[in-house]
Amino acid sequence: METALEVYNDVEMRSPETQPIKRRKKKSKVWENFTIKNTEPGCRRAFCKGCNQSFAYSSGTKVAGTSHLKRHIDKGTCPALYHAQNNDNNNNNQLMTPYTPKSDTPRRRYRTQNSSPYVAFDQDKCRQEIAKMIIIHDYPLHMVEHPGFVSFVQSLQPQFDAVSFNNVQGDCVATYLVEKQNVMKSLEGIPGRFCLTLDFWTSKLTLGYVFLTGHFIDSDWKIQKKLLNVLMESYPESDGALSLAVANCVSEWGLEGKLFSVTFNHPASKTAVENIRPLICIKNPGILDGQLVIGNCVARTFSGLAKDVLDKGKDVIKKIRDSVKHVKTSESHEERFVELKEQLQVPSDKALALDDQTQWNTTYTMLVASSELKEVFDCLDTADPDFKQPPSTEDWRHVETLCTFLKPLFEAASTLQSTENPSAVTFFHEVWKTQSDLSRAIAGEDPYVAGIAKTMKEKVDKYWRDCSLVLAMAVVMDPRFKMKLVEFSFSKIFGEDAGKNIKTVDDGIHELFSEYMTLPSPLKPTSEGGKTDGLSDFDTYIMETTGQNLKSELDQYLDETLLPRVQEFDVLDWWKQNKLKYPTLSKMARDILSIPVSAAAFDNVFDMEPREMDEYKTSLRPETVEALICAREWLLESDASSAAAAQMSNAIVKTEA
After folding, report:
1. How many CA within 13 A on the CB side of residue 288?
2. For residues 279 and 245, is the Cβ–Cβ distance under 8 A?
3. Where is the composition biased (Polar residues) (predicted)?
4. For 535-557, what is each residue's pLDDT tens digit?
5. Which regions in the chain score pLDDT beneath 50?
6. Alpha helix segments (H runs only) across 63-214
7. Rounded to the nearest 5°, which phi and psi values hold at 544?
8. Can you tell me whether residue 653 is helix, strand or coil?
9. SS3 category, 381
């Protein structure tokens, strides 16, 4: 029997008839792990020294070669060799490097039960992921230098080089710049104009931070918004602070000639408003001059009204708060309260909780829940000797009055937190209805109610003076209402002066339409292949002969019958379907309906005071603060969009299946 020290030439085998077999010392490393044995006459097989598994080697004059033997060793399919390598790795704390074929030709891959995927370590990729983690979860940048974090990462990957604060700060800014390019690309080709909202934040260092968000309607007629900048203002009270922030945003994002309106929630002087106005593309010296600079954010207006209500009832509210505090801050007190509620069979399902005095909606919900449980509070002094005198009957009556005033404000402000962007049409109705209700309350006989209503109406009147034209124009662009709702509501609000105010809206909408008529006309539709239909001369003839007698798109639209007020009506989709019928008016409607009624962010519409930037972020460079906040917003939006797309794709697959 031939030993393992003898082998055929595994590079090239020749027929024994043409050339005798030459025996020589084997060069391949395969034979360090295999031995050759005769199994049958004229048949030899290669046996693995580790696992004793046999493989074909030669039969007669045919030799199988060694490629399959290499795969058995180098691909880790030999159980004995695989376990030996793992033990060596554990002892030496080293990574296993897999075999990489030198051949350029693709080879078949064999899946084995014991094989595991190998991922090459990438330091740069790890740093990118750490930067994204810090941005998305709002972690402090210094965490990368904390001993606990360094130890944790080293336990996962000893090859990872620890990064410093400066390193991760640069990585976060780099991530921001990449995402910014993606946002800029997504904003290219937006067919309409942009509206800006300025949400102002304070800080303990007397620095101001302006959050600038762009609002627009995309090519699919869906309203969108995108955080564009977070700019630090060293002197936020100056007349040029807001205008400088807007100018920087317009220049940085290329919005020259595209800015349609500006809405902000920070008290601004007349000079500050005048500084912003030249940046807006619509600058009519007449009716619309200044009307598209909206200084009264509707969320801040509602918060101001709610603050007036709460100030009027602060003494009563303190009594209710102390009563709730007694129940909620002691487990034994709460148990007695629940037992008493069950005995009295009070049907309330409202959760009793202390309010956060920085969020007026929590005070409202506390008052509502307490009012429904007033019977339990009235009897609590007998069941709980520690409980002080409960609120009186007069106190409860005042609580009900406060809730009556706060309820419509709460419902209207809650609309701003809905998943869909609220329309100006909704708030036109809410504002004029609130004004009418307050007028009736002032005329009532209850002096307590009249005092609250009078204070609130002053703020509503100011908001109406500043914003009624913008809100009314949005109503006109709704085919369910047009000028009819404006005429109806103004007659209720202004009485004898209604005609003058209605004319102001009508003149304003026509003046704005005239400006849009001067813009370049949309391209005419062509036949297939991009060729014209040969009737361009006919179109010119029609314009010359009948153009003088045709109504404008606006007048034609206003004269048509109102659409039924169906509940699920989508005004943007209606304009999308009718853009060919009203090519110019649809462009104007797109811009008007994109005007935001609030500058407050999604989660702070109930704030009693402006938001305050935390001390950690104020210690960072302004560029870093902007990078962290903007990149976080963009990354979360991207993740949400990807999740929604995946969900829709899965739904389509299930439907097709």
Report:
1. 24
2. no
3. 94-103
4. 766 656 655 555 444 578 999 99
5. 1-22, 90, 92-106, 108-113, 522-531, 547-549
6. 67-74, 79-92, 123-137, 147-156, 165-187
7. -75, -35
8. helix
9. helix
CA proximity to 268, closest of 303, 295, 235: 295
Say how far apart CA 506 and CA 491 lie, in whole Å.
15
Pairing between β-strand 43-48 and β-strand 223-233 as defined by DSSP bridges:
unpaired
Pairing of the two strands 259-264 and 223-233: unpaired
Report the predicted TM-score, pTM, of the whole model to 2 decimal places. 0.74
Tens digits of per-residue pLDDT, 623-657? 999 999 999 999 998 877 666 555 655 655 555 55
Alpha carbons 399 and 403: distance in angstroms, whole number: 6
> Which pair of structure tokens corresponds to residue 267?
């008290």
Q: What is the DSSP track for 541-584?
A: HHHHHHTTTSPPHHHHHHHSPPPP--TT--HHHHHHHTTTTSHH
Residues with Cβ within 8 Å of residue 186, at least 6 apart in sequence: none
CB half-sphere exposure, 579, CA atoms < 13 A? 21
Closest CA to 62 of 21, 108, 1: 21
Asked if 183 contacts 159 with a C-beta cutoff of 8 angstroms, the reply is no
Give the H or E element holding residue 339. Answer: helix 331-344
**Token pair of 304 as six digits:** 């101001």
The CA-based diameter of the chain, rounded to the nearest angstrom, is 126
- Alpha carbon 40 to its chain centroid, in Å, reads 73
Residue written as token pair 């020259």: 256
3-state secondary structure of 608: coil
Tokens of 318: 């303190």
Structure tokens at 209: 């931070």
Residue 189 region, left (φ>0) first, then alpha (ψ -120 to 50), else beta? left
